[in-house]
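Subject: Sanity check before I submit

Could someone independently write out the structure tokens for this chain? I want to compare against mine line by line before I put it in a report. The sequence has 236 residues.
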Amino acid sequence: MKKIIYILCLIIISVGNTYSQKDTIRDNYIGINGGVTMYAIVTENKFEYEDFFKTNNEQIISSLYQNAWTAGIAYKNFSEKLVGTALELNYVKKGGYNVFLYDLDENTEDSTAVLFKHDLEYVEFPFMMNIRFGKKKLKFNLYGGPHISYLFKEKITFLSDTFGIQYKTSADSEFDFGVNGGGGISYQFGKNIIELGMRISQGLINIFEYQSINSALFNQNQVISARFHYYYIFKN
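---
Independent answer below. Compare away.
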């Protein structure tokens, strides 16, 4: 998996260099971003277990999505008038509610679900294409592209009886790879730009290996965020 991510990074950097070598414009933006997020673990059994999530623990879970915040630094390069690249380095909290399946009887298919909350904290590097259109100062922005994340902290909290069984206490992969998409509206004043936008980020790597904790074929991160960006413009 690390080799695949490394190859993807080389491809992305190569594409970015191709854009930057065109002799059109040389606009560069550097800035900061921050916002609020809603995050959850997406599995094929998400809705099948929803009633269990809401009723089988001391504190009733009102939503499968949890709230958090995100922040980081951002950079944009426009070598063409309408198309550029956007790079960020962000702190992002992911994870959510999931279940371990415990077999009640080895001779039958009877099992029960052990509910747990998985808190995951990542450093994330999104590399996205930025398409912009609009007037000189007021512009609409569309974003799309991949991200690579590194897990640096995690915690599993059991919310129901574990039946004395030892379960996994850490994710099977330190890396997450996925895709981002979203949009926003920006306004320029002088050499400064402020932008408000929405984004959805979908992980493509299983937090736990295939069917290693339950019958789900996949268990992946999903984050929905509302973000504020501030950029300073400088030209080459």
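---
OP: Matches mine. For the report I'm noting this point. The chain has one domain: 2-235.
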